[in-house]
Amino acid sequence: MLYVVTGPPGAGKSSWIRARAKPTDIVIDMDLLALALAGPGAPDHNHGVVLAKVALRARYAAIDEACQHLDQVDVYLIHTMPSPKNLAKYKRLKAKVVTVDPGRDVVMRRIEAMRQPTMKAVATRWYRQRPKTSQGVMPQRSRDW
After folding, report:
1. How many CA atoms lie within 13 A of 130 on its CB side?
2. Which phi and psi (to 5°) does residue 27 adopt?
3. Can you tell me the distance from the alpha carbon of 127 to that of 103, in angstroms, rounded to the nearest whole number?
4. How many Cβ atoms sit within 10 Å of the Cβ of residue 35?
5. Which residues pair with 99 in a beta bridge?
6. pLDDT, tens only, 29-43
7. Are 98 and 5 in contact (CB under 8 A)?
8. What DSSP element (H or E) covers 10?
9. Are the CB atoms for 11 and 102 separated by under 8 Å?
10. Quick one: fold of 2-128?
11. Residue 115 DSSP symbol
12. How remote is the C-alpha of 74 from its chain's centroid?
């Protein structure tokens, strides 16, 4: 099964996956890919332009390959704001789209505490264009971390 996990930055998408994925599942998370490709001591969520480009290419390759094995493993894909084209592809793959959203106030506090300030604009855009296509909303417990 392909699980496409959407939601604004800081919503808890990675935490949602960690609570459900098994060690044999595949998790495609841009932040984890960038960290895996970065040098020692790189910050968790503040990737440079070149690193972000390389990680994005690795993400595309990982998605393409992982989707060929959906009959053998579950794949968890973080995709903050999938385009209509992406959603059509996920629908063809019979994906379950899950939205993680603890609420705008919680998200903005988390971004302020843990993320680069530019992520506020991404979160604002997410709330403005909130996807209406997900199969149920999965709110995280409202907590600050």
Report:
1. 11
2. -120, 120
3. 9
4. 16
5. 6, 137
6. 998 998 899 877 666
7. yes
8. none
9. yes
10. Rossmann fold (3.40.50)
11. S
12. 15
Cα distance between residue 63 and residue 33, in whole Å: 12
10 Å CB burial of residue 119 (0-12, 13-18, 19+) is: buried
pTM (predicted TM-score): 0.84
Measure the CA–CA gap between 58 and 104, rounded to whole angstroms: 30
Cα first-last separation, the chain: 30
Count helices and strands in the chain by DSSP H and E runs: 6, 4
Looking at per-residue pLDDT, the higher value among 2 and 115 belongs to 2
- Tokens matching residue 132: 């209406």
Q: How far apart are CA 108 and CA 117, in angstroms?
A: 10
CA 64 to chain centre: 16
Q: Tokens in use for 110?
A: 């988390």
What CA–CA distance (Å, rounded) separates 139 from 145? 15
